[in-house]
Amino acid sequence: MKVIVVESDSSMLIEMLKGCKVNDAKFDGLIHDIQQLARQLESVVFMFAPRQHNRAAHLVTFFVITNIGSCRWSMKILE
């Protein structure tokens, strides 16, 4: 079984995605869509990762934004 781990440094976002906190109206549609997509997958885990522990992800994101401009995720890595 493949497990997809979704990490964020926003504890409020993770709580909303887990269904532990009432959704902020601004994000309600987006949270609903993410939850619907997660239900279609084998296993999705939403985890809080403090920013200082998630520095590598922030550096990669910054690099892509500043050097490439935009990117598209490929599902091939999951196969």
Largest sheet: 2 strands, parallel
Q: What letter string, H or E per element, gives the SSE order?
A: EHHEH
* Cα separation of the termini: 12 Å
Fraction in helix = 40-55%
Oligomerization: single chain
Tell me the strand order in the biggest sheet.
Answer: 1-2
Please indicate the percent range of residues in DSSP E strands (runs of 2 or more): 5-15%
Give the class from helix and strand content and strand pairing. alpha+beta
Q: What is the strand tally?
A: 2
- What's the overall geometry? globular
Number of helices: 3
Radius of gyration: 14 Å
Q: How would you sum up this structure in a few lines?
A:
The chain contains 3 helices and 2 strands.
